[in-house]
Amino acid sequence: MIKLENLSVKLPGFAVRNVNLQVAPGEFFALLGPTGAGKTVVLESIAGLLHITAGKVRVAGRDMTRLPPEKRRIGIVYQDYALFPHLTVMDNICYGLRYFNQDTKAARQRIGDLVDLLGIAGIVHRRPLHLSGGEKQRVCLARALSVNPEVLLLDEPLSALDPNFREDIRRLLKNLHGELGITFMMVTHDFNEALYLADRIGVMRQGRMEQIGTTEDVFLRPATPFVAEFVGMKNIFEVALSGQQAVFGGLNFPMAEPGGDKRGVLAIRPEDIVLQREDGFEGGFVRYAGVIEQIVPAGLWHEVSVRCQQALFKTVIDRKTVLSQGYGEGDAVFLGFDKDAARVF
Ligand SMILES: Nc1ncnc2c1ncn2[C@@H]1O[C@H](COP(=O)(O)OP(=O)(O)OP(=O)(O)O)[C@@H](O)[C@H]1O
Where does the UniProt annotation place the signal sequence (predicted)? Predict the structure, then answer.
């Protein structure tokens, strides 16, 4: 449905380079990456709001690269609402109809349905000023969907909302996507949001696409150390590969296949690490002896740092286990993890 072919956009001081991406009809695709990676630039290029320097944007097989925004049938929703304060909610929602040349009876009927679907029938005569963040975002969704778009682009639609509304709108987005069956593409910083909503994910870094895959793929099998760190693999060690061993900080990690003689990176997620008083790990587990260096309580979980030789591992252990085991700083422990949970790049 959305196809980007070598998309390049040059801006003063920043460039998006050679982005290739295909989003299937009806798919929910999330674009992730740190601040300034170029996610919004990609979204605005698809919407026709930025000039594309090279490459192509196709939507539903049609070349949109040089089409003005109003000819693209693409809706866009921003985090900061951008509603007109002097217009009523209904006039805000209908504003796009004129812009897109779609002010027809059928469109007004569709908007009636949307207003019901989004649960905002009670506020259509109000002005945006005193609406809650959640209500404003519902109005923005109605406005973007009023023109019956083929694609809905969402630029961090949840990030300005307080946590209660965020949950609400997150669920609403999931239902809307299921109900409308159109293609959604959403920019977010938040991996959990993407895990909940998206079928597939693209991770951007410095204007380039670093990895595209299913949410599970990116989460469990990050392709680069950057993505590994981004998706929360907080244990990232530089390793020297020697035959089937990855050597780091005085420890050996046995690899499934020889890695050749070079340097690499080993990454493992804190929640994949288990602590025990005794070395009772099953086969297939890699285990190291270590000493607890720090315990930081964090609600139901404690962040426990364990030094094994020169390597410092970050783990998260549930509070109950920490208490029942009586773990304290300075305690000798064994740390283990399933070999398959670690990634070596
Ligand atoms: N219209 C523009 N003109 C010039 N520079 C721009 C324009 N839009 C974005 N940029 C620059 O492009 C870079 C990438 O911005 P972009 O907003 O795409 O990042 P992002 O990945 O969406 O980040 P964030 O998560 O903070 O929103 C930034 O350095 C930004 O200042």
Answer: none
Angle, in degrees to the nearest 10, between helices 89-99 and 133-145: 30
The two beta strands, 151-155 and 14-23, are: unpaired
Question: Model confidence over 189-243: pLDDT tens digits?
Answer: 888 899 999 999 999 999 999 999 999 889 888 889 899 988 888 999 999 988 8
ipTM over 0.90: yes
Rounded alpha-carbon distances, angstroms, from residue 248 to 235, 238, 239:
12, 7, 5
Q: Which domains does the chain have, with CATH numbers?
A: 2-226 (3.40.50.300), 233-344 (2.40.50.100)
Cα within 13 Å of Cα(160), Cβ side: 16
Pocket test for ligand 1, best of 7, 8, 14, 45 (most atoms within 8 A of CB): 14
Closest among 250, 274, 264, 282 to 322, alpha carbons compared: 274
Residues 257-312 have pLDDT tens digits of 776 768 889 999 999 999 999 988 888 899 999 999 999 998 899 999 999 999 99
Tell me which residue has its CA closest to atom 27 in ligand 1: 35
Which residue's CA is the closest to the ligand 1 atom numbered 4? 11
Which residue CA neighbors atom 2 of ligand 1 most closely? Answer: 11
